[in-house]
């Protein structure tokens, strides 16, 4: 769940089988697409929120990433209060036996968020949506959907092997031979490696899972190795 600090407006939320960094990135991307780029993102120190990929994403969209102090419950009071409200007024009232899929459960969560955002909040004297709309003119929106998608790509650096491959999460991928022995930046979505590519001088160079049979038959113009025992003549 992501909440706007000023208005209490729920800008993002989702249900997943696993609590991990990539699932939070998906919630954040949808929130940014729908409601704009936050100037600051204040999160706790869990692995889902304290990682290099989230730092890179926030840098790409121009958001300052801040983390709460360890064991400082007061710093998370608003979101913790929201979780308590969600449980007491929504989750505990559901007939869980009637929910047959995660998609259905997620739809019910979105219904809750819409109701919450359009109901008067006692702490601010208006609805979260109305208060959020009052500051709408100062909110930065993404340049385009394509720009946003690229900002949220995960990125890693790898040195290309002499057989023109790299390894990502123990899976081998073929890369263009021009990058042999070079360090490259690879961008990808963890759940869609078919779209992974090397970013080099603004151009995209696709990579693909290694076909070992094809790879071993490919001729490469590798630089010949140096036999250092022969340098300087015979000993």
Automatic annotation (TrEMBL):
- Annotated transmembrane regions: none
List residues of the Integrase catalytic domain: 1-136
Single biological process term from Gene Ontology: DNA integration
According to the record, the residues making up region (Disordered) are 210-235
Q: Which GO terms describe its molecular function?
A: nucleic acid binding
- The entry's protein name is Integrase core domain protein
Q: Which Pfam families match?
A: Mu-transpos_C
Task: List the taxonomic lineage.
Answer: Bacteria, Bacillati, Bacillota, Clostridia, Lachnospirales
């Amino acid at each position: 769940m992501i909440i706007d600090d000023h208005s209490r407006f729920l800008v993002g939320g989702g249900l997943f089988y696993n609590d991990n960094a990539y699932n939070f990135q998906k919630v954040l991307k949808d929130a940014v697409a729908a409601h704009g780029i936050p100037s600051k993102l204040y999160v706790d120190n869990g692995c889902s929120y304290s990682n290099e990929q989230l730092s890179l994403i926030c840098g790409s969209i121009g958001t300052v990433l801040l983390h709460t102090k360890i064991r400082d419950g007061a710093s998370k009071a608003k979101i913790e209060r929201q979780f308590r409200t969600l449980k007491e007024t929504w989750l505990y009232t559901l007939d869980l036996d009637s929910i047959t899929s995660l998609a259905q459960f997620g739809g019910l969560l979105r219904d809750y968020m819409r109701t919450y955002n359009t109901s008067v909040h006692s702490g601010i004297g208006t609805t979260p949506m109305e208060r959020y709309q009052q500051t709408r003119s100062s909110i930065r929106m993404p340049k385009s959907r394509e720009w946003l998608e690229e900002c949220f790509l995960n990125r890693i650096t790898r040195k290309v092997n002499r057989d023109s491959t790299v390894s990502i999460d123990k899976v081998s991928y073929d890369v263009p031979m021009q990058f042999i022995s070079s360090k490259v930046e690879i961008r990808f979505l963890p759940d869609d490696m078919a779209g992974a590519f090397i970013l080099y001088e603004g151009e995209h160079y696709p990579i693909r899972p290694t076909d070992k049979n094809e790879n071993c038959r490919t001729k490469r113009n590798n630089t010949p190795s140096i036999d250092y025992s022969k340098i300087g003549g015979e000993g």
